[in-house]
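[audit] Reproducing an earlier prediction to check determinism. Same input, same settings, fresh worker. If the tokens differ from the archived copy the diff job will pick it up downstream; this log only records the rerun itself.
[audit] input (180 residues):
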Amino acid sequence: MRMILSDKRILEEIEKGNIVIEPFNREYLGSNSYDVHLGKYLAVYRDYELDARKHNLIEEIEIPENGYVLKPGILYLGVTQEYTETHAFVPFLEGKSSTGRLGIHIHATAGKGDVGFCNTWTLEISVVQPVRIYAGMPIGQLIYFPVDGDVINTYDRKPDAKYNQRSYKPVESMMWKNKF
């Protein structure tokens, strides 16, 4: 049976150093999740047609004070304000219901992190209809699951991990680094 960590347990694991959230604000801790916020940078791919075997370049967008309107049919890469580390649990990033009710999807497939993931979270944002978004708005929530058994190869120690470089900006797909 999979169990999600409670607020009390998340606080205990932060105290032990098994979970790191920077910046951390107790106000954003829910009963079994932690709210994360949209960073000030977005990115879009330069080319409409992407190639999984090539390095697809991105263009950076800084969200202005008065917000930025996302449009349907475009994949936006966003980033969380929060830097996180998870050393003993599997982190999952899920959308908030308030975000979903605006028609904002925050990830296409990459909602699960790995034990040892240490970074901000790149978001794969798409929208159902045009919607104005703001840097600092609540965008998702992290939940944590215990791991059954010892982890041999944590993400932060994998020699071929593609997303280990600390970043406060969205990171484009590194699929092109895979051999296929």
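[audit] rerun output stored. Observation attached for the diff report: Residues 69 and 143 are 28 Å apart (CA to CA).
[audit] end
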